[in-house]
TrEMBL record:
One of its GO terms (biological process) is defense response to virus. It comes from Coffea arabica (Arabian coffee). Keywords: ATP-binding, Leucine-rich repeat, Nucleotide-binding, Plant defense, Repeat. The gene is LOC113694806. Residues 188-362 form the NB-ARC domain. Residues 445-515 form the Disease resistance protein winged helix domain. This is Disease resistance protein RGA2-like.
């Protein structure tokens, strides 16, 4: 089976190379005449190899079983190695041409002559280099072809059987409805939930409802379906029950015939679809049936529609239970929400193991083995199939040393003939689309239990060239689709939402083990002494290092990094400090992704320019103050991450050369004093968190104009350097539909009339979700800020000292969070604030904060229909505020916070809403006195609020 894994990853590598060659032939060979023939020869060779691998994939049961798997493994490894070499060659040529084009456009000295010389050199060298790789591949193809023909001749079969039959026979096992419930552990709650669904009347109009059971291979979907199928309540509830094992071989005629044969107990001799379906329809008509389709794989709507046509005549309340590994399948066929099966706990895994390990043995004789057995059970990571397989292995082991050997072994290293986990997960990998196989295998460079963040992993896949263009869709979006597909197929699982509100994902230990196995030739995750692994690293392409002393490792790069494409340094402690040598980057010349985050680095050597293939560079959380100018020679760079580099002062002057840069991820706007000139050249930028408006040529806000793909968030500072509405319009913010968050910052007030015009010209696209305006010096806000077409969810207005009137923010239909802070000229709020027209009144507002408002005295004009969803209302440091509007109609209000409002005379006369749960009063003497327990004039207004806190003292609730 390892040969099957290797063949699969080799196929994926060939597919990536073929797509790369096709793209190269379209874009580059027109510049380098005379190489078309060699490119075509290489393509033909690759297509020939792919055809051979298809034959092997379709005939694994016969070919790999009778021939040398070691030979196939060697060929697969060599194919992958030569595919990488070919990709590197094509990439190097493309980058050289890009450099020539950049020099030509920049009118570099003698650039025209240099260009012609380089193109001439390519004409001479490129056919030779490509031909060399092609010859290696042709030799492999000839050897493989010879063995395939020999073995097929020996087997007497030149006519290849259908792929679906072969793969089904090789990988899958048929299942039946029979189960011994005494051997089922930890599924009581799941069983009750599914039985409840089966006995529930159909919620939709259809007579038949579908319940998908979803989970990774080996998690127990079939077992759960079996115990539900045989439950007494279920048996009594249905007139007919049928169990069908579908597996990977979807055949609508075969499945329908199997259903008929199960219902009649006779062989179905019909052969055409129409009479077969008519027969089934007559058997189901007017009867309440339960059908289980176990191990359903096909993701084609048409297959499901065709299969289920006869089901519709069943009596209302009929149910179909489908077990599947794919959430895509569940979304196609489910009428009930998919039921996602979770892993077992360690205790239940041990119970399953113990059943097999101690079967027909006296438990008292094995008490001393139990402690070790419980440790082994943890290796299952909650997977029932793993527990059963390990239990079966332990049954034949009779002493503690043998058990300890299993405890200290990786599950993948255990004998494959006794290891059902292997074949169960192999089928999931085998049926991954080729574009996902490389992406999945790549994940093995991360340590076990690593938490994946979608965007970062997608950018790494992009850097490696794994993501192929799909129509006009962004590569990042295509990569996100890849990520989703791995989730839907149970290769990745949701873990939690982190502090930055990002969803994090994990890979089950056994799935991670499978990824390590299939990528063993090229992907390495090294956490210990690298010298032990040295012999295996000759062809290493992707690597993460988690050594405690990384300095010792990177100081001697020649021993391990010759062919590396990915290098992720992952220090095992926070004190790891690495000093990068000039020689290191000379050795890493094929590197495409480099992650040096959190390495305590102070300086990046000039030799970084030798990483000409580099696409992804992460330098976050280091002490660097600048980047070497030579970095601007890495023309293929797509992603540059500089987050939390608090000492960083300046970007390279020629950053404009990096025209392929898509993500400049920095949150260092307060350290930088200026931006490099002519950043407008970076028209492919999608992420740029900060832009500092300068005064010189090529440094103005107009540089943002052509960056039409900008998305995410951006903070534009030093807006005092924008002197007119015409300059502001040049930023084209209204033409950036993908921006979600915008911060507009002035450093000082400047000319107030000019700033009014500038802010008017900075109108964003209606899709913007978050807006912050700081230190704006105008008298009033532009009309667009209250426009009902804006989709703003969050607004923060602060330190706008000359604004005496708030805009009509109540007209924004989707606004949820509003914070107004430090507006020293604002004395009164009236009904203009809530707005006018059909969307007035803050229809969606949930949080409202007024903070540091030195002259605010009153708020009036709030009517009974305004702010219907407001949950939190806060007044902080409003020293002149004397009264609050009527708050009693705010029927959703949960929290009210009044802090440092010493002149506030009383709570609203009409009282507070009954929904209020928390009231906090701090440093507000008059209100504090009026709210004294039992005696204060406003006590009756608050006494039933569950939580009252006055000057940090919690007041007990009155019963």
């Amino acid at each position: 089976m390892e040969a099957a894994f290797q063949a699969g990853i080799a196929q994926a590598s060939l597919q990536v190379l073929l797509e790369r060659i096709t793209d190269f032939a379209v874009k580059e060979t027109s510049l380098i005449l005379g190489v078309d023939d060699e490119i075509r020869r290489l393509q033909r060779t690759l297509q020939r190899i792919r055809a051979i691998l298809d034959i092997v994939g379709n005939n694994q049961q016969s070919l790999l079983k009778h021939s040398s798997t070691e030979a196939w493994k060697m060929w697969a490894a060599d194919l992958e190695k030569h595919s990488y070499s070919a990709e590197d060659l094509l990439d190097e040529i493309s980058l050289d041409l890009l450099q020539v084009g950049a020099d030509y456009l920049n009118e570099a000295n003698e650039s025209y002559q240099v260009r012609n010389m380089l193109l001439s050199s390519f004409k001479l060298s490129m056919p030779h280099e490509i031909g060399k790789i092609r010859k290696e591949l042709e030799d492999i193809a000839t050897e493989m072809d010879s063995l395939v023909l020999t073995k097929m001749s020996e087997l007497g079969s030149y006519k290849l059987p259908a792929k679906s039959c072969l793969t089904s026979n090789f990988f899958a096992k048929s299942t039946s409805s029979l189960v011994d419930e005494g051997f089922v552990v930890g599924r009581e709650k799941d069983k009750d939930e599914i039985v409840k669904m089966l006995l529930t009347a159909n919620a939709n109009r259809s007579n038949v409802s579908v319940i998908p059971l979803v989970g990774m291979g080996g998690i127990g979907k079939t077992t759960l379906a079996q115990i539900v199928y045989n439950d007494n309540q279920v048996v009594k509830n249905f007139d007919l029950r049928v169990w069908i094992s579908v597996s990977v071989n979807f055949d609508v005629i075969g499945i329908t015939k199997s259903i008929i044969e199960s219902l009649t107990g006779k062989k179905c001799k019909l052969s055409d679809l129409d009479p077969i379906q008519c027969k089934l329809q007559s058997l189901l008509s007017g009867r309440k049936f339960l059908l289980v389709l176990d191990d359903y794989w096909t993701e084609k709507y048409g297959d499901w529609d065709s299969l289920t046509c006869p089901f519709r005549v069943g009596l209302r309340g009929s149910k179909v239970v489908v077990t599947t590994r794919s959430s895509v399948v569940a979304s196609i066929l489910g009428t009930f929400p998919a039921y996602h099966l979770k892993v077992l706990n360690d205790k239940d895994c041990w119970e399953l193991m113990k059943q097999r390990a101690f079967a027909n043995k006296d438990p008292e004789e094995n008490m001393n083995m139990e402690e070790m057995g419980r440790k082994i059970a943890k290796k299952c990571r909650g997977l029932p199939l793993a527990a059963q397989s390990l239990g079966g292995m332990l049954h034949f082991q009779f002493d503690e040393e043998e058990w300890e050997c299993i405890l200290n072994s990786e599950l993948w290293d255990l004998p494959q003939e006794k290891n059902d986990i292997f074949s169960s997960l192999l089928i999931s990998y085998h049926f991954l689309p080729s574009h996902l196989k490389k992406c999945f295998a790549y994940c093995s460079i991360f340590p076990r239990n690593h938490e994946f963040e979608r965007d970062k992993l997608v950018l790494l896949w992009m850097a490696e060239g794994f993501i192929q263009p799909r129509g006009g869709k962004r590569l990042e979006d295509v990569g996100s689709d890849y990520f989703n597909e791995l989730i839907w197929r149970s290769f990745l699982q949701f873990s939690h939402v982190n502090l930055y509100n990002q969803s994090m994902y994990k890979m089950h230990d056994l799935v991670h083990g499978m990824a390590r196995l299939i990528s063993a030739n090229t992907c390495f995750c090294l956490a210990e002494d690298i010298s032990y692994w040295h012999p295996a690293l000759a062809n290493a392409r992707h690597m993460s290092l988690g050594h405690a002393n990384l300095q010792q490792i990177v100081s001697k790069p020649s021993t391990w990094c010759k062919n590396l494409r990915t290098l992720l340094l992952m220090p095992r402690n926070s004190k790891s400090t690495v000093q990068l040598s000039y020689e290191l980057f000379l050795k890493l010349r094929f590197l495409r992704a480099l992650d040096l985050c959190c390495m305590d680095i102070y300086e990046i050597p000039d030799s970084i320019e030798y990483l000409k293939h580099l696409r992804f560079l992460n330098l976050s959380e280091n002490h660097i103050q600048n980047l070497p100018e030579s970095i601007t020679n890495i023309l293929g760079l797509q992603t540059l991450v500089l987050k939390n580099c608090f000492e960083f002062l300046e970007l390279p002057a020629n950053l404009k050369k990096l025209t392929n840069l898509r993500h400049l991820d920095l949150d260092i706007k307060h350290q930088l004093n200026y931006m490099p000139s002519d950043l407008g050249n970076l028209v492919n930028l999608q992420t740029m968190n900060a832009f500092i408006v300068g005064k010189g040529k090529g440094c103005g806000i107009g540089q943002l104009g052509n960056m039409r793909f900008l998305r995410g968030s951006i903070c534009i500072t030093n807006l005092e350097n924008v002197l007119s509405v015409m300059e502001a319009n040049e930023a084209n913010l209204c033409m950036k539909p993908f921006l979600e968050s915008l911060q507009l910052e002035w450093n000082y007030s400047g000319d107030r009339i000019d700033q009014q015009e500038v802010l008017a010209g900075l109108q964003p696209h209606p899709n913007l979700k978050e807006l912050a305006i700081t230190n704006y010096g105008g008298f009033m806000f532009p009309s667009w800020l209250g426009g009902p077409l804006l989709k703003l969810r969050t607004i923060h207005i602060r330190s706008c000292q000359y604004c005496s009137v708030l805009p009509s923010l109540g007209q924004l239909p989707l606004l949820k969070h509003l914070c107004i802070e430090n507006l020293s000229s604002l004395a009164s709020i009236d009904d203009h604030f809530c707005g006018f027209g059909p969307t007035k009144g803050f229809r969606s507002l949930e949080l409202l904060i007024f903070q540091n408002m030195p002259n605010l005295m009153e708020w009036k004009g709030l009517d009974g229909h305004d702010m219907p969803l407001l949950r939190e209302l806060t007044f902080i440091n409003c020293p002149r505020l004397t009264s609050l509007p009527s708050l009693h109609n705010l029927s959703f209000l949960h929290n009210l916070n009044i802090s440092h409002c010493p002149k506030l005379q009383a709570l609203p006369e009409q009282g507070l809403p009954v929904s209020l749960q928390i009231l906090i009063i701090l440093e507000s003497a008059i209100i504090k006195e009026r709210c004294r327990v039992e005696e204060g004039e406003d006590w009756y207004k608050i006494k039933r609020i569950p939580k009252i806190e006055i000057d940090y003292v919690q007041i007990p609730m009155v019963a």
